[in-house]
Specification:
It comes from Rubricoccus marinus. The protein is mainly α. The protein has five helices and two strands; from the N terminus they run H-H-H-H-E-E-H.
């Protein structure tokens, strides 16, 4: 029998109680993406079925957006490297493999968990600006969005992988 979903396995060590759902969602996403990448031949990574975004885009975006949201949660501006990554998302690169893109995402999840462990729950309601326009959010808002946006793209990745493998 397979394990229950991550959120049913109990608390993640070292993560504040209010941030457990964020950690659970990110860990579940990492497990789900690992399975999808295992079923994705490299020659199908950049296919865009029906004009939809490719699996390669979703894998790049998963790592990139998670990194950007963690930066906003810390109250920091995006770096030139982060902007370069953003502009490269979805650009076909035959040198990239599904495994390499998964590894980048998995490292991002590890970084997110480390940041969650270091987050003082007292800071969760603090204001955070998002994007160039510094749209209003909070520490918890950016962290929750990081998790839900990740889950959204995992769902899109799942459908894309199933279609390109059909």
């Amino acid at each position: 029998m397979s394990q229950p979903e991550v959120w049913l396995r109990g608390p993640v060590d070292g993560i504040p109680a209010l941030l457990q759902p964020v950690a659970h969602a990110l860990l579940q996403a990492r497990e789900d993406v690992a399975g999808l990448v295992a079923d994705l031949p490299a020659d199908r990574l950049w296919r865009r079925p029906g004009g939809a975004a490719s699996a390669g885009f979703h894998l790049q975006h998963l790592a990139g957006v998670l990194d950007r949201m963690l930066t906003y949660a810390r109250g920091e501006p995006l770096s030139d490297a982060q902007f370069a990554h953003l502009h490269a998302e979805g650009v076909e690169d035959p040198a990239l493999t599904p495994e390499a893109l998964f590894d980048a995402f998995a490292e991002g999840v590890d970084a997110a968990l480390a940041q969650l462990r270091a987050t003082d729950p007292a800071t969760l309601p603090e204001w955070r600006g998002v994007g160039r326009d510094q749209l209003p959010s909070t520490v918890i808002g950016t962290l929750v969005h990081a998790a839900e946006h990740t889950q959204r793209h995992v769902g899109q990745l799942l459908v894309t992988v199933r279609v390109v493998n059909a």
